Amino acid sequence: MSAPVPEDTQLQPLREALAQAWPGLRLEWRKEVDSTNLELMRRARAGEAEPVLLVAQRQTAGRGRLGRAWQSAQQVQDPAASLTFSLGLPLAPQDWSGLSLAVGVSVAESLDADGAAGLRLKWPNDLWVQQRKLGGILIETAALAAERVRRYVVIGIGLNIGERPGTDMRTPPAWVRQWWPQATPLGALAALAPALAGEVRRFEHAGFAPVQPRFAARDALMGQDVHLSDGREGRCEGVGPGGELRVRTAQGLEEISSAEVSVRPRGMAL
Ligand code: BTN
């Protein structure tokens, strides 16, 4: 079972807001794809480098970080209970580090502007509400033929909109309707996507450093004792200007920038 694709008239205001945020940015809403990230990466490799926001009502092979699968709530329960999309853009920042953190900050600020919902960011790219996972971000890039500076970036985001059971999940879930009872996938997308495109544009010119204080205001790991998947343990001291996680271990202050390392507060399973 899947929810109907929204009508063109319902999508029109969002189309206009997106085109204002990023000239030429097109909205494509599909009933089903294997993975919105995979689809845009395939297109980029085939030479299609248009700015596009691809939404899938249903993904049959959603992908998460570290080679994990991403299973949307709609596949489990309510057909409108999740939002899965990828934003594909040609981009040429001087430094890519911290992009996923800037994306998380933008999404968190759009969905929880005053912080009342307690939406926090768990380095490097999880959206958390009270140590429960609201969503995740998966960023991939592809080279563009005949371009030396720009790459095509695919920013994939999966968010729980409606309630979902937490069984078989590594981190128990949170969902947007916990503080926004009427939330829909389209409503949430309209609330966050134009601002996200603007955030990525600013990142391209200014990098992560100006976003660092905004990340700090929502940093779920700040001051927490954590263990890392590579065996290290320590206490988090925030993120640096390049988006690296600072962890005070027995060996001193360590800076973790590898997205291959996962971090969990002590007491949560890795
Ligand atoms: C994670 O938490 O591991 C990241 C999850 C990212 C999931 C989104 S859903 C839309 C896009 N398409 C995918 O296949 N993955 C991302």
Automatic annotation (TrEMBL):
Its EC number is 6.3.4.15. Transmembrane segments: none annotated. Keywords: Ligase. It is an enzyme of class 6 (ligase). It comes from the Bacteria. GO terms for molecular function: biotin--[biotin carboxyl-carrier protein] ligase activity. Signal peptide: none annotated. GO terms for cellular component: cytoplasm. This is Biotin--[acetyl-CoA-carboxylase] ligase. It comes from Xenophilus arseniciresistens. The lineage of its organism: Bacteria, Pseudomonadati, Pseudomonadota, Betaproteobacteria, Burkholderiales.
